[in-house]
Design a protein that fits this description.
Layout: H1 5-13, H2 20-29, H3 33-38, H4 41-46, H5 51-63, H6 67-79, E1 82-85, H7 93-96, E2 104-109, E3 118-122, H8 129-144, E4 148-151, H9 157-167, E5 172-175, H10 189-198, E6 200-203, H11 215-225, E7 229-232, H12 240-250, E8 254-257, H13 268-275, E9 279-280, H14 284-291, H15 299-307, H16 319-327, H17 335-342, H18 346-358, E10 362-365, E11 368-371
Parallel strand pairs: 3-4, 3-7, 4-5, 5-6, 7-8, 8-9
Antiparallel strand pairs: 1-2, 2-6, 10-11
Helix pairs in contact: 8-9, 9-10, 11-12, 16-18, 17-18
Length: 373
């Protein structure tokens, strides 16, 4: 993708009168954000944008960046931040297929951490000593197995999971409920900088946004949306961690929980999840086995999967994914062209190709999707 994605995303974020849904419509209709912004009113209308949105874009283009937007751009550049809009090949495949994905992500650190399969480890801010130990050990074991450990940068279980991954020499992703330039809680500033060195901080919220209660459920759906599965280490009833688990289940992702005694109030949320069918986790091996993670496969099994162009265990393809795989070849084909050829919607294609990317059977190049094996 050419151009300055950070400046382009800020241009849309600071465009008065343009909603998040409008931004998604714009990005879905054009090859990339730069083409979308340059298209003009007629093309915007043809793409399905409402007159109010077209007017907002026209007005923003005419007047140029305002003082607040220019200051935000300078601030983020000093921090080394970047932005990944929908359509960028680095935009996480799993997040792309959740309902109403963010039209862009702001991040600091290494975007490649988002390309590695992730497992979320979440839990109570008021973690017990045993809960914190369990989260740290799980984070370390998952990282050692080659997975990125994803959590929410909160005190308690989240912080322990991040530290466990870092101390194991692995990658970790922290999803923020604030702007990328506002670390919360403040006591985790040092941890946040360590994460930037080994993974990344990521958020959908505009720069300068401070913590507000309504933003944490939004963050939670991104934690689960980025991940193959979500492990709840310790959670009371009710709790935000259970909201993350429910979001994971609604997104079709695996949910796991650590078992606790019924006499431990901080673990009752986990017991509820286990009663509801969550996978029981005593160690990272339980998660890895359930996911069929290649690190636990014999070399022969992994080689056979690659040689026959079949997904690794843990990736049972749906009917749409198998159908799309049959339509792909080594050449790159754009989502809209695939949708037309197969008589399906672009959303159908993106959902199916997300499965193929996770199974190692397809990836995205500059011109579209291609079959790998």
């Amino acid at each position: 993708m050419s151009g300055d994605s950070l400046a382009h995303c800020l241009q849309l974020d600071f465009c008065d009168g343009l909603t998040v849904a409008d931004a998604r419509t714009l990005l879905a209709a054009f090859p990339d954000i730069e083409h979308g912004l340059a298209a003009g009113a007629r093309a915007w209308r043809d793409a399905g944008l409402a007159p109010a949105a077209c007017s907002a874009l026209t007005s923003r283009r005419r007047r140029g960046p305002g003082r607040e937007e220019a200051a935000a751009l300078e601030r983020l550049r000093r921090l080394g931040a970047c932005a990944l809009p929908l359509g960028d090949p680095r935009y996480p495949a799993l997040l792309r297929v959740i309902p109403a994905p963010p039209p862009w992500l702001y991040l600091r650190g290494n975007p490649a951490a988002l390309a590695v399969p992730q497992v979320a480890v979440v839990g109570s801010r008021r973690a017990s000593a045993l809960g914190g130990r369990a989260a740290k050990e799980l984070g370390g074991e998952l990282a050692q197995a080659g997975l990125t450990v994803t959590s929410g940068l909160a005190i308690g279980i989240d912080g322990c999971a991040h530290r466990g991954a870092l101390e194991a020499g692995g990658d970790t992703v922290a999803v923020m409920a604030t702007g990328i330039d506002k670390v919360y809680p403040r006591r985790h500033r040092e941890l946040a900088e360590a994460i930037v060195e080994r993974g990344c901080l990521v958020t959908e919220l505009p720069p300068g946004t401070g913590p507000r209660p309504a933003q944490f459920p939004r963050r939670n759906r991104l934690i689960s949306g980025l991940s193959l599965g979500t492990v709840v280490v310790e959670a009371a009833l009710p709790s935000g961690s259970l909201l993350t688990a429910h979001a994971a289940a609604a997104q079709g992702r695996d949910v796991f929980a650590v078992p606790w005694s019924r006499f431990h109030p901080g673990g009752r949320g986990c017991l509820q999840l286990l009663r509801d069918g969550a996978g029981l986790v005593e160690s990272a091996a339980d998660v890895l086995l359930s996911l069929g993670w290649p690190g636990l496969l014999s070399p022969t099994a992994a080689e056979d999967a690659a040689a026959h162009g079949t997904p690794l265990p843990g990736y049972d393809l749906s009917g749409p994914a198998r159908r799309l795989l049959g339509a792909l070849d080594a050449g790159e084909r754009a989502p809209d062209r695939l949708a037309t050829d197969l008589g399906e919607s672009v959303e159908w294609v993106l959902t199916a190709v997300g499965e193929l990317e996770l199974a190692g059977l397809a990836d995205r190049g500059v011109g579209g999707y291609r079959r790998l094996r």
